[in-house]
């Protein structure tokens, strides 16, 4: 009788990881395929691109002063989102400073579907090329293909491309900030940090950390970039337009349609869900205490200035960004792409444990897969999930990911300081 080897026998850890990477990639393709099959483009797939495209259309047709008019945003978004009369429509708003709108004016010149796929392709190619460039510039070698695969298949990257977000730009700004810092060009580093103003909430801990670290030239560069962006923005939309934008920002803090706090990866998300089961005082109290504790943990180790060429600096910056993702008021999973240049930097330095790349790739994607499977099984027998259950699990996976990194960063710095002279 001929012996047939059973599949997946005698696989080592590396082979199992390769198999798992293939499964995650297939899982992402299935989600994209399902969205296309159900005609869900610009309702889930491309949801955020829809908002960015609409302000580009308004800037081209009505003028910059009108880009924050929510009625106009809804007018342009509705035809591409509500393809059938029975589809629900939820306005997704864009709250970028005016200076960052120009790329979407260019994409408005294309047919909207083509524009989304071209936007996706440009960002994906740009991401891969930049990660290779970043690694080559800092370490003189190419980023190992296996490491690149682990990074690209992390859930934050998938979500960024699925909804059509802009986090590749944020990632490049952080990467170039780090490169300029390591090259002892602090003013240039500060200019790159100004690029994070596309999402100002990303700066709530980084700026205090820079000041505590006495990085005065870097801070000056940031102030110059920020003032330039602010002056150009006021020139484009006027003071009334800026007031409208500030009102939208305040709305994002308090909660407006399209904000989706239930599936964020921060303490606000946890408080939102706890409010469903307990009193607002309980949910809000836990969210506030967790947020403040995370911010304090993110900055207190900078009380002793860090040498920007020491191994501790990259680890500390990674910890600050992880703390930011957990503490800031608007923090969806895709924003964790900010961490990727620091993951590469600390991984190539052998300061970051190899297991974290495994966690980055498989933890949250496994949670999403489990939620979808459980939802399908429960629905098949006539029941439904507890409201918000999927968002809670996804958000918790992101919050735990950030807290894990922050705790690791604190322990690493403490260990280093215990063996090095003060």
String of helices and strands: HHHHHHHHHHHHHHHHH
Q: Please, what is the average pLDDT?
A: 88
Residues in helix, %: 55-70%
Query: From the helix content, strand content and strand pairing, which structural class follows?
Result: mainly alpha
Task: Name the poorly predicted regions.
Answer: none
Give a quick account of the main beta sheet: strands, pairing sense, barrel closure. none
Radius of gyration: 22 Å
What is the number of beta strands? Answer: 0
Oligomer, anyone?
A: single chain
**Count the helices. How many?**
17
What does it look like?
- The protein is mainly α and 422 residues long.
- Helices cover 68% and strands 0% of the residues.
- It contains 17 helices and no strands.
- The mean pLDDT is 88.
């Amino acid at each position: 009788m001929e012996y047939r080897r059973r599949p997946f026998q005698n696989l080592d850890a590396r082979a199992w990881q390769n198999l798992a990477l293939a499964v995650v990639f297939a899982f992402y393709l299935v989600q994209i395929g399902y969205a296309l099959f159900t005609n869900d483009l610009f309702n889930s797939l491309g949801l955020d691109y829809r908002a960015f495209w609409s302000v580009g259309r308004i800037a081209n047709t009505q003028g910059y002063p009108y880009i924050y008019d929510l009625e106009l945003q809804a007018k342009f978004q509705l035809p591409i989102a509500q393809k059938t009369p029975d589809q629900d429509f939820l306005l997704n708003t864009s709250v970028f400073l005016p200076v960052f709108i120009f790329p979407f004016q260019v994409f408005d010149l294309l047919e909207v579907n083509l524009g989304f796929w071209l936007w996706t392709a440009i960002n994906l190619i740009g991401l891969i090329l930049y990660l290779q460039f970043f690694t080559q510039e800092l370490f003189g070698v190419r980023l190992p293909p296996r490491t690149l695969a682990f990074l690209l298949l992390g859930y934050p990257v998938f979500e960024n491309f699925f909804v059509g977000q802009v986090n590749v730009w944020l990632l490049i700004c952080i990467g170039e900030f780090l490169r300029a810092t390591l090259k002892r060009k602090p003013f240039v580093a500060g200019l790159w940090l100004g690029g994070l103003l596309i999402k100002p909430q990303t700066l709530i801990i980084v700026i205090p950390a820079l000041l505590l670290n006495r990085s005065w030239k870097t801070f000056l560069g940031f102030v110059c970039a920020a003032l330039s962006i602010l002056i150009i923005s006021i020139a484009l939309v006027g003071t009334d337009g800026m007031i409208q934008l500030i009102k939208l920002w305040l709305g994002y803090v308090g909660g407006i349609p399209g904000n989706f706090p239930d599936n964020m990866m921060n303490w606000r998300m946890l408080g939102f869900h706890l409010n469903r089961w307990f009193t607002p005082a309980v949910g809000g109290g836990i969210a506030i205490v967790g947020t403040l504790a995370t911010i304090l943990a993110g900055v207190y180790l900078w009380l002793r200035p860090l040498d920007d060429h020491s191994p501790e600096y990259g680890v500390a910056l990674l910890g600050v960004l992880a703390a930011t993702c957990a503490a800031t008021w608007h923090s969806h999973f895709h924003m964790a792409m900010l961490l990727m240049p620091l993951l590469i930097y600390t991984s190539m330095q052998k300061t970051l444990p190899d297991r974290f790349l495994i966690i980055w790739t498989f933890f949250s994607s496994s949670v999403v897969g489990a939620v979808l499977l459980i939802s399908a099984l429960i629905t098949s027998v006539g029941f439904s999930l507890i409201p918000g259950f999927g968002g809670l699990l996804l958000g918790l996976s992101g919050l735990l990911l950030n807290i894990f990194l922050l705790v690791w960063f604190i322990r690493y710095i403490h260990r280093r300081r215990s063996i090095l002279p003060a």
